[in-house]
Design goal:
about 15% strand; 2 domains; Aspartate Aminotransferase, domain 2
């Protein structure tokens, strides 16, 4: 490999949420929050250094190069034509979701989502004074599927203003295919439902699966959808917050822009974020991303093989995208509550408790972030094995 994913910073000393919480054991292994342990693509540093050397952070316009990079990236990777007037940005993905709920729904409206659901999205729905309607994903032989009958029946019964889609899905790792997306769009279009699509995990995709942005599905999707993406999960730029919003429908775009102008997001531009995003989308990090996917795929395969070979009492759901592994612990003999506490106490591993982070349908599950060095992964797997041996 050209890039080194086996060497990493000591994240216990750089303010990391995942590694550096004050109440953790000294030897804790951080496998919770969804960020990468690896150094970023070199092009990001190269894009940021000239700005730091200027040492002047005045109000700055988004250059034409930025818009061209976005348009070319969507065209190159997804065959999607994106016009400059479709584009805007806000500092965070969840923030974008919350604003979109305020634009396209009103207090008291219902919002339908696939569950289990990442809790900050639940907070956004509650913050908009909307009511969540769950369309639970159905687990079938280590794989989750959309229950379209339930989805359509609940739309007809509750008349939601919004379908809030998370694709690739967090925490299950599903990547919805063309047929599924077309069916979802058709149901929403026929029932007057606006789609808000959170696509933050779309850069990490495994096997032959293909991520499809909502606006690339068909013309009907472009009439009813808000597409939200951030490069944070794929390129580890969480500290350079920048979510790109793409809206093709002119009336929807007008309503959106009217709302975000009140936040001055178009004026208060983060020059570092713009430079990093432009560098990445121009293709300067493509080779790095290709190698990252290969490294993460190896970590995933090693984890799944280890669970099977060591006969650990865990049932993993193989992700089609993202670096997050959703694991059923119902048969593990450790109960279904406070599972994160079990792994912290017995293995000194910080991970995400399913119920705490993803609601009632996450009870009995854990989510593990395997975007760590392979050496750390091996250590973590050995600790998990030992924890079960000592039960």
């Amino acid at each position: 490999m050209k890039f080194d994913f086996d060497t990493t910073l000591d994240h216990k000393n750089n303010g990391s949420y995942r590694w550096g919480m004050s109440d953790m054991p000294n030897d804790v292994i951080g496998m919770g929050t969804a960020d990468l342990d690896f150094n970023c693509a070199p092009c990001i540093r190269e894009a940021l250094i000239p700005i730091a050397q200027e040492n002047c952070y005045n109000y700055r316009q988004r250059p034409d190069e930025y818009y061209k990079a976005i348009s070319d990236w969507y065209s190159r990777n997804y065959g999607l034509t994106v016009k400059k007037e479709w584009l805007s940005s806000v500092p965070s993905t969840i923030g974008a979701i919350r604003i979109a709920l305020g634009v396209y729904a009103k207090p008291g409206d219902t919002v339908i989502v696939q569950t289990p659901l990442f809790s900050p999205i639940d907070w956004a729905i509650n913050g908009a004074d909307c009511k969540l309607i769950a369309n639970p994903l159905t687990p079938i032989k280590g794989h989750y599927e959309i229950d379209f009958n339930d989805f359509e029946a609940k739309i007809k019964k509750y008349h939601p203003s919004i379908y809030l889609m998370v694709n690739p899905h967090n925490p299950t790792g599903r990547v919805f295919n063309q047929m599924e997306l077309e069916h979802l769009v058709e149901i929403c279009a026929d029932n007057g439902v606006t789609i808000i699509s959170d696509e933050v995990h779309g850069m990490i995709i495994y096997d032959q699966h293909k991520f499809i942005p909502i606006l690339a599905v068909n013309d009907k999707a472009q009439e009813i959808s808000v597409q939200i993406v951030s490069l944070s999960k794929g390129y580890n730029v969480m500290s350079l917050p920048h979510a790109i919003i793409t809206i093709a429908n002119p009336d929807m775009q007008k309503a959106w822009m009217r709302q975000i102008q009140a936040y001055s997001f178009g004026y208060a531009t983060n020059s570092f974020s713009i430079a990093a995003v432009t560098s990445i989308l121009k293709g300067e990090a493509d080779e790095w991303m290709h190698e990252l996917n290969a490294y993460l795929f190896n970590n995933l395969e090693e984890t799944l093989d280890y669970i099977k070979e060591q006969r650990l009492p865990l049932i993993p759901y193989r992700p089609e995208g993202s670096y997050l592994l959703w694991i059923d612990c119902h048969e593990a003999g450790i109960g279904t509550e406070e599972l994160a506490q079990f792994f912290m106490e017995k293995a000194h591993i910080l991970l995400d408790d399913g119920e705490e982070n993803f609601g009632s349908e996450g009870k009995g599950f854990i989510r593990i972030n395997f975007a760590v060095t392979n050496k750390i992964l091996k250590e973590a797997l050995g600790r998990i094995k030992k924890a079960f041996e000592e039960l």
